[in-house]
Design brief:
- The structure is a single chain.
- With 228 residues, this protein is α/β, with parallel strands linked by helices.
- The chain has one domain: P-loop containing nucleotide triphosphate hydrolases (Rossmann fold).
- A six-stranded parallel β-sheet has the order 2-5-1-6-7-8, sandwiched between helices. Strands 3-4 form a two-stranded parallel ribbon.
- Strand 6, helix 7 and strand 7 form a beta-alpha-beta unit.
- The longest helix is centred in the first third of the chain and has 14 residues.
- The radius of gyration is 17 Å and the shape is globular.
Length: 228
């Protein structure tokens, strides 16, 4: 089992876009994949386009309520950071030890890959005591950082990478997910990252494809699929 934690420089930049693409491509390569979205905010049970539902669909699974519960046990309706959403809904915030135990339980299964998608960016609060960064540090797994191609992403990305480095988190890859309607050329952004990010860290461009089930139309992500 090879576990990876998928995080980002902020909200809405493409974590699920990457997770679903990897789920599809690894499964098509004949690999057994488990994917989790343990914490989700802004969740509506009837929404079949939620992050959790899309992850299940990309694995060929039904987004039925019991399946949502299985991969996303901490679900909040408010579109806020988990600590704020939990407080608004008068519910307990996700506890770090419970999150870590949930992820490690799935890492013990006999699969080839485990993909755990975080919530928000690297420093989003899970509770009033812990952040997503604490979650990643506690797991100690390689991290895939997803960032956008929008104006301002360079500072956000390099800041996130520096914080990961300071906390001793292993950065496995940097994925630049194409931001919709961005005026900044994606290739120029990638070239800048290549000057500032360590050479041994792959930098991957992830285009946006406006089709149903876009994960089935994405170009191969060779850095992980071929290594599988």
């Amino acid at each position: 089992m090879r576990p990876f934690f998928i995080t980002s420089s902020g909200t809405g930049v493409g974590k699920t876009h990457l997770t679903t693409t990897l789920c599809w491509q690894l499964a098509q390569a004949g690999k057994k994949v488990t994917a989790l979205k343990p914490v989700i905010s802004g969740f509506r049970p009837e929404d079949d386009s939620s992050d959790s539902a899309l992850i299940l669909k990309s694995l060929g699974l039904s987004p039925a309520p019991e399946m949502m519960e299985a991969i996303s046990p901490w679900r909040f309706s408010a579109p806020l950071a988990p600590n704020m959403a939990a407080e608004r809904e008068a519910r307990p915030a996700p506890a770090l030890d419970a999150l870590v135990a949930f992820c490690r339980e799935h890492a013990s299964l006999e699969n080839d890959f485990l993909l755990v998608e975080g919530v928000g960016g690297v420093m989003v609060p899970l509770s009033h005591e812990h952040t997503v960064m604490d979650w990643m540090v506690a797991l100690g797994w390689p991290v895939i950082l997803v960032v956008g191609s929008y104006l301002g992403t360079i500072s956000h990305t390099l800041t996130a990478i520096e914080v990961l480095r300071q906390r001793g988190v292993s950065l496995h890859a940097l994925v630049v997910s194409e931001s919709p309607q961005s005026d900044v050329p994606m290739d120029d952004t990638v070239k800048t990252f290549e000057r500032f990010v360590a050479m041994e860290i792959p930098i991957i461009k992830l285009p946006r494809i406006d089709k149903p089930e876009p994960w089935a139309h994405m170009p191969p992500i060779r850095w992980l699929v071929d290594a599988a």
